[in-house]
Structures are given as C-alpha cells and as structure tokens.
Amino acid sequence: MTQSEWPLWEVFIRSKQGLDHKHVGSLHAADATMAIQNARDVYTRRLEGVSIWVVESKHVHASNPDDAAAFFDPANDKVYRHPTFYEVPDSIKHM
Amino acid sequence: METVEINLEDQFQARIDADISIEPKDWMPDAYRKTLIRQISQHAHSELVGMLPEGNWITRAPSLKRKSILLSKVQDEAGHGLYLYSAAETLGASRDQMLADLHSGKAKYSSIFNYPTLSWADMGCVGWLVDGAAILNQVPLCRTSYGPYARAMVRVCKEESFHQRQGFEIMQTLCEGAPEQKAMAQEALNRWWWPTLMMFGPKDADSPNTAQSMNWRIKRFTNDELRQKFVDMMVPQAEFLGLTVPDPAVKWNEARQAYDFGEVNWEEFWNVVKGNGMCNQDRLGARVKAHEEGAWVREAALAHAKKRAERAETQAA
Predict the structure, then answer these.
(1) Any residues with CB less than 8 A from the CB of A3 and at least 6 apart, and which?
(2) What range defines the domain where residue B36 resides?
(3) Which of A29, B162, B221, B313 could form a disulfide with B225 if both were Cys (CB 3.0 to 4.6 A apart)?
C-alpha cells in the first residue's frame, strides 16, 4: 500500500435549526471541502441535517476512559447540586 | 500480572452483562476486538459487493421511476458500507487494509451476492427476500454491545425498510401483471429462496463462534432462530403474492406455532463460501477493477489538497 489513504474526518450534524451539532460518524476525504461534500452524501441523504461540521480526527483530544472514575469523581458526592436534594413544603407552589 | 488480566476480563463481561455499551477507547479483550473487526468489515464488504448485482440493472430498469429508486438504493448500499467501515476503523482497523483483504479474497462477504441477477424480477427478490433477511439480521444488531457498530446499524435499519418495500412492490406489480410476468416472479423466487435461507449462516450446531458472540452480546439471536423467523415472516407474504415457496416441506406446525421447512443444501452453501459460486470471480473482479481504475482519482485529490494547503501556507507567510 502507498501512503495514499485520505485523512479521516469526524462528522457533526445539526439536524434542525435550534439544535446542536451531534457526532454522527467519520469518513475519509482529501480536504475539508471534500469532507463536507462526502458527509452530505453519506450522512444526510434523507434531510437529516441543515448544517455540517467536519474536523480531522487527529485534532480530537479525548478523556481517558480508564481514568473515568477518578476524573469524574468531583461530581460524584455533590448531591446538593441537584434540585431534588431540597425539600419544598407542599404548600409552596412554582418552585 | 495474570490476576490483573483476569480481573479486566471479568469487569468487561460484567459491563456486557449489564448492557453497558463498549466504546472505542474502553479496554476490551483482544478476541472481542478481532471478532468485531472481522464481523463489521465482512458486513461492510457485503454492502459494497451488494451494489454490483443491482448496479447491473440500473441501465435496464423498466421505467424512469424504477431507475431512480434503484439508483437511490444502490447509493444507500454504498452509504451503509461507509458507516460500517468507519465503525471498524474505531477498533484500529485501517480502511486500506480492509479493502486489500477484500480484494485479495482473504476477507469474506455475504455469499448471496455470488448468485446472478438474471431478470428484472430478481431485483424484486433481492429487495423483498435478501433485504428482508438482512433486516432480520440487522435489527438485533442495533443493540449490539459495541457502541459504534450499534449506532451504524440504527442508521442502516432506518434506510433498509425502503429497500424491502420497493422489492415487494416490484414483485406485487409483476404478480398482478401478465401471466408471463407472474411466471418471471415465480422463477425468481425459485432461484432466490434457498440462497436467502443460507444468508443466516450455518446451522447452530456447525457455528462454533455463536456461543461466544452471544455471550459478548454481539449477536442476540442464533442463526437457526433467525432463519425460522424469516420463514415465518415470508411464507404468508409469498401466499399473498400468489407465489409458491420452492420447498415442499413448508407446512404450518400448529404445536410449534411456526412453519416447518426443508433442509438447506449445505454442500452448496460451503461451496459458495469457499469461492466456487456462480459469480464469485465476477464480483471480485468488478470490485478490484473499480478500485484500481479509481486510483488516479484518489491520488489526484490528495495532490490537489496538498498543493492548496501549501499555497495557503505561502500566502500566510
């Protein structure tokens, strides 16, 4: 094989106006313009999107799943951050 | 060292048992990764090769409507292949390597595509039967344990039901047409019925990998379970069309609440798997030709992208 494999791109699609872009998958393309055109053909053949983002996969940095327990630990014991932690008297409305 | 390894495997199995999806960077046993790469790439290859028997009929579709539908369907198959290749790549497989394995004959694809599509009615059977069987296989895969594979399958399944319906509509139109058209439909059913039953793979007793795949929740049903479901689904549909399933053993079994049916010709099955089917060489030949003839396009696109990137850099400097 030559070194001819096109770079890998991650594809994000806004399914409709007002919603955020969501990761849908990846594809190969020579450059960003082609990545967007390919993303249109691969991921939006049935009007699944109104906007596309692509980013070369090598630019995505991710947290390490092996460290997930420790990494997300700070949020683990703070139940008081949730509204359900607080007791509201029955007679109080609109809270 | 050993104890740590065992521990990881146990933890992994516990996650599987709790129906927690496995994601690309999570720890997984090597065998799980290998099994998935093999299954997903094989699945992707099937989508790709699956374009060939139908692509054959695009220029000969009987009307503009049928031509548009067939074009769309073939384009969908290409899309399905791409979703699946990208899912396999999340496991560390390279696209070039997967394609090289397909082209060298090392990797397999679904044997069904090694049967020829002789008449327009075959387009009906491919949609109705072959895609019908594919859907039965694919719906449970939407809940498979590996996240990217499951998500790809959700997308595939959404699109697949159009494929089956357009196939059924072709069959229905032929069956409501002239006697010659109906005969054509029956003849196509005769040719496609048994190969479609083979799509579910060998009998459970001859499928050594099934138990492990079920344990890892890659597979949710066995080959025989899916084959039975397919027969139960299809016999009434054939009856509706006024067609006869080419198996004298097909009979409703009141006690089992399912159809009995005859034995698949396993010799033929293994023969086609080994590469001796009617179209194995044709299909691979067409695939390799398309890939080789597209090489200059892939290289030119890369060269163009490189030139533009360099130009942008000089301008910025």
Answers:
(1) none
(2) 8-264
(3) B221
